[in-house]
Amino acid sequence: MVTATRNVTRALTVGDNAPRRRRQPAGPSVYAVNLVLIVAAVYFLLPLIWVIIAATKSPADLFGTFGLWFSDTPAAWHNLVALFTQDGGVFTRWLVNSVIYSGLGALVAMVLAAACGYAIAKYPFRGREALFSIILGGVLVPATVIALPLYFLMNEVGLVGSYWSVLLPSMVSPFGVYLARIHASASVPDEVIEAARLDGAGEIRIFAQIAARMMTPAFVTIFLFQFVTIWNNYLLPLVMLDDTKSFPVTLGLTLWNGQTQRDPMFYALVVMGSAVSALILVALMSSLQRFWRADLTAGATKG
Amino acid sequence: MATRTHRTRARIPRAAWVLILPFVIMFAAFFIAPIVYAVVQSLFATESSGLGFGAPETKFAFFDNYVRAFSDPTFSQSLLRLLLFSAILVPLMVVTALGLALLLDSASARFPRVFRIISFAPYGVPGVVATLLWGFLYVPATSPILQVLSNWGIDVNPLSSSAVLFAIANISLWGFAGYNMVILSSALDAIPSELYEAARVDGASAWATIWHIKLPLVRPSVILVTVFTIIGTLQLFVEPLVLRPLTTAIGTTFTPNLAAYNQAFAQGNSNLASAMAVIVALLGFVVSFGFLRFVNRKGNRAW
Fold this sequence. Notes:
Strand content of chain B: under 5%
Number of strands of chain A: 0
Number of helices of chain B: 13
Structural class of chain B: mainly alpha
Order of helices and strands of chain B: HHEEHHHHHHHHHHH
Oligomer: heterodimer
Helix content of chain A: over 70%
Number of domains of chain B: 1
Strand content of chain A: under 5%
């Protein structure tokens, strides 16, 4: 346990140290290994390449030209302008909504989960393991199961349709508590807490100013994990929201997708919109991947 | 609870509750309460009185809703379909992610960092957008893949009733295989070099190293990935919902979640919808705990 978590902590804090090439017994042929990896890379990239090419086409060319090559009559700029001006520029609003739901939701979720996980790790109170087990049980409940009854509950308190109906449930991350507890026991030494107490620091201050700094990698991981979870959540906004102005981008795109039968122009909007929203998140993922190498998630189970 | 913990030997600063309670309150409101509400709702039935006059009556109905859900052949079929989907996706996901992680970890892989970033990218694409993209790739009019295959004389229809589950499984595999691979390859990175040195000294082959060192040491991470994939499959909702307009093979009760959504919003029967949601949650617990018991009994403690 100790060595495993120490590895995790080091891998996370050092961040982007390339995994050292270790001398292992010689494996199967270099060609075979890399051929499989290249095929897999093509598989992962293919839909993304397709959507980037498709986004440059008019609806007619989308159906009339080969999917993996550009058409002779590019409409990329036209599609991009259409995407951001359709329905009074509502797409920008959807993007902003998504950023608000995901950013604010993940930020609060991170603070709440980290504080709770830290406290469970560092204060041996009665019922601690029972509480932790109940929270862990929350990880096993499919989000789709919660969404429907949550709608009925929100309906009774009159919150359905508001930003809060999506934001509030997004602020709870049981998995975050789990990560925070594991990381706090590994990276915040009891001696540091004792020393701070002797210096007269209060418990909240110890957490906010000392422990939080030591738990930075866990904070980042919880934030990113929750950010993607909220950004990808579809059922919750679907049941909660009815005003298109409060839609996140996923819901907005399916709204347009439902109108393609009426007007083929919407194909171009859906494709361009998918390309833009996919690329934003892929760029975010790739740039932050060095902070989020999933080591914490992996190491958490050792012991 | 606070007063009782004061009597225990370990001193619990009252301030610690400030760290724990915010999360616990939110967790109770947005995880526990909906589940309790769903269970209670599922035990009641709302009936309008015989002649249609007066307010509809709500009365205690014991397990009537559960009996109704199970005796509805379309719901039972959707449960079986969900289990079949799990049986297809879970092994496919674990084998793909583990296989790629092992290839990437072998000494032969050329550009492991580039491959990690490429395979991780689909994780950032929301399920809705991924389904929209693959939807275009599943329709002959827009799919370069199907067009090429058709030129070779191979005609496949991924959205036919016999293939549609595989088509949906492919979307999930595309989205999460890379993410799971990153978790598993971080676990492989954490294996101490000394073990490989020892294996070399003993003259172990690459296969023997995989079989006797790598697989046993990444077992906990494999279990984690498996449980998360099982829970993910039970959420099946977005993909069939978005693919539905493209094919007649997907009905309004294709998965239990779709059936519950349909009951709540199209049929207006929130009691029956709650019963269906509870059934999916119970199924999740039974399958994930069953799996954990199974792996823990066969060998040493793994979780």
